[in-house]
């Protein structure tokens, strides 16, 4: 299987599993928490049919990538992405991130710049800063029970999480099947227990500086019915931070945080 080594933990390498298919200008797709590169399967089919080279990968601790005990922060994620782009020698890349993957896009561009990246897309992205402050009134208080809930009952947590992630009271049976929801649950509970808990702290990362450095075209897509990451708390502020000449922000009616994936929409 294709792996890129991005580090070392004791006696074992830390490897990122990736898929690399097609030809033409490359698109690199970065999944959200706690999914894997398979989350992009519908977009991958459409992009391959359009003549693009498509690269997906599993973030460390998730899917078929290594499960180290450390490194679950955006600096490490972005460094891993840079290792992947360098190893595959990808240039003129279109970079797309969904949910937590959008934070990875921001940190990568803020740290490594635009030498390899042509433009980017952010779909249902995390907030520029999650915690509540006078400047971020849509944020949440510092105290959070998410980590405790994951530690106490990971499987039960993801059962409840999926209800809002997919807006199941509205979409189940029409936009998404019970089997697809089960598949995503299987991916979540099959991930590294350390990674799923450690990833929660990443949600508190401050991405303001990274976003303000972006100087390439960025398409921001966000559903108006997103319950996991409400649109008003996330995308308008992100659009303000990215240089106006670089960004386009589109509201999409009645889509949940995962509808771009479950309905086959393309980033």
What would you say about this model in short?
This protein has helices at 41-49, 74-87, 100-112, 146-152, 154-165, 168-171, 178-189, 193-202, 208-213, 231-241, 259-262, and strands at residues 3-9, 12-21, 26-30, 53-57, 93-98, 117-123, 218-223, 247-252. By secondary structure, it is α/β, with parallel strands linked by helices.
Number of continuous helical runs: 11
What number of structural domains do the residues give? 1
Strand content: 15-25%
The global form is globular
Note the gap between the termini. Answer: 26 Å
Task: Outline the low-pLDDT stretches.
Answer: 258-267
Taken in chain order, the helices and strands follow as: EEEHEHEHEHHHHHHEHEH
Give me the Rg, rounded.
17 Å
Sheet with the most strands: spatial strand order: 1-2-4-3-5-6-7-8
CATH homology-level superfamily: Alpha/Beta hydrolase fold, catalytic domain
Average pLDDT, rounded to a whole number, is 85
InterPro entries: AB_hydrolase, AB_hydrolase_1, AB_hydrolase_fold
Protein name: Alpha/beta hydrolase
Domain AB hydrolase-1: 26-234
Pfam families: Abhydrolase_1 (PF00561)
